[in-house]
Amino acid sequence: MDFVITLDRDSSVPLYSQVAEEIRQAILQGRLKQEQKLPSSRTLAESLGISRITVTQSYEQLTSEGYLETRKGSGSYVCSQLPDEWLSIQLKERSPQNNSQFLSLLSDYGRSLIKADNSEALEPVAEISFRYGNPATEQFPVKIWRKLLSRHCYYDRAVFDYTYDPAGYLPLRKAIADYLARSRGVRCEVEQVIIINGSQQGLDLMTRLFVQPGDWVAIEEPGYISVRQCFLGQRAKIQPISVDKKGLKVDVLNQCDRQFKLLYVTPSHQFPTGVVLSLPRRLALLEWAQKTGTLILEDDYDSEFRYDESPIPALQSLDRNDSVVYIGSLSKILFPSLRIGYLIAPPALVPIICQARWLCDRFTSLLEQYALTDFITEGYFERHIRRIRRFYNHRRQVLIKAINEYLGERATIVGENAGIHLIVQLHTNLSEEDIIKSAHKVKIGIISLKPYYLQATSIKEFIFGYSSLTEPQIREGIRRLASIQEL
């Protein structure tokens, strides 16, 4: 035999694996040549002082891996082409052109994603990041949640099976309907509630159901980037409608001579500016929707977090003509990876939305739906909201005080009475790019509002999220920003 096999009989590695590895290395190092015959299993077993079955297992493993081949009546041979050699050839032959060959087959939707603006998802790499939207997950009652999950793991085997109701777990839908009626004035029957995997799925479903290429849709200006991408993915034509201190300018809508399919709006806490759509404009918007036959998508993404003001009823609560689809999410209230949201749809739309939901991904995880039902019905949900609202309000006040103390007249705060972020206008001769670069030099991450506009803007506005930062981090972050020269 042209090679030596060394075995460690005290090793935890089985002998057959040791033999296989020794032969494999002998082949790869060229000590065993291609097409070379190996000793019979009996001969090799005797020379090594081990069982013939052990050698047979080694040969079978190497044969399954493509290193050996068995020739009937002749024995085992090293393969003429080895798996490592084949892999090396494939890697050398692969080219960028081959890697992208299927890009030409992409649909219009797929091609739209290549050009998509993902700035909203980019995390500023910094020691202190004022990124918005990340809740204070350390405040979530994990022990209670674990108890509820365990309860259903032990006693409800149905949570591990399929469900054939794409609208979701009925007791959860009822719990959500009851909660929304109490907290937001939402008017609906339980049959109108559809459980979804977060509000983004709801936006995607509604867009694909209602928007054809070339259709006009209206969005707020500035507005939510991801809904814009949903519309562009369906090749819609987008009309931005400007926002002022009273919210969406409904008079601008009335002046448009286009027929819109959808209008996306965040009336209770406009994203990203934080302004609230006034009651007269809410009534005017519903009148416009009825007159034009436009379906309104109301995104009520963080309405639970209002400070110094009483809660505002949802736009849907004022709707008497089934013109509004209400979309909500629990990501900001509980934790983002929960991926549970809901749609409140007019009765006529429920069957088709459920059918689209079924084709999309069948249903939302049952275990989490069961646990969330108990979390709401047993009082933990609203208790958590009351506690986390006080918690965020305190951090908000720390941020506002720090901005006023360190930046003073160099900054104007917008939309500070709701949500878990606020907008700051910086009054400086520096460009937005220079502000961001200078902030990065002092290890601070801030996000410009510019990508949220479809039309060009010269206002130097930035989003300041505070929910996931500690109070010392908030103060230190603003202090460092204030230290930037020329700011």
Strand order of the largest sheet: 4-11-10-9-8-5-6-7
Mean pLDDT score:
88
How many discrete structural domains?
A: 3
CATH topology of the largest domain: Aspartate Aminotransferase, domain 2
The number of helical elements comes to 17
Structural class: alpha/beta
Describe this structure in words.
- By secondary structure, the protein is an alpha/beta fold.
- It folds into 3 domains: 15-85, Arc Repressor Mutant, subunit A (Orthogonal Bundle); 119-133 and 384-482, Aspartate Aminotransferase, domain 1, CATH 3.90.1150.10; 157-383, Type I PLP-dependent aspartate aminotransferase-like (Major domain) (Aspartate Aminotransferase, domain 2, 3-Layer(aba) Sandwich), CATH 3.40.640.10.
- The protein is built from 17 helices and 16 strands.
- It has helices at residues 15-28, 41-48, 52-65, 83-93, 96-99, 108-114, 142-155, 170-184, 199-210, 225-233, 250-255, 279-292, 350-361, 366-377, 380-406, 432-441, 471-482; strands spanning 68-71, 75-78, 128-129, 193-196, 216-221, 237-244, 247-248, 260-265, 295-299, 324-329, 341-344, 411-414, 421-426, 444-445, 447-448, 461-465.
- It has an 8-stranded mixed sheet with strand order 4-11-10-9-8-5-6-7, with helices on both faces.
- Strand 12 (411-414) and strand 13 (421-426) form a beta hairpin.
- Helix 15 runs parallel beside helix 17.
- The longest helix is centred in the last third of the chain and has 27 residues, at 380-406.
- The chain is elongated and about 95 Å long.
- The N and C termini lie far apart (79 Å).
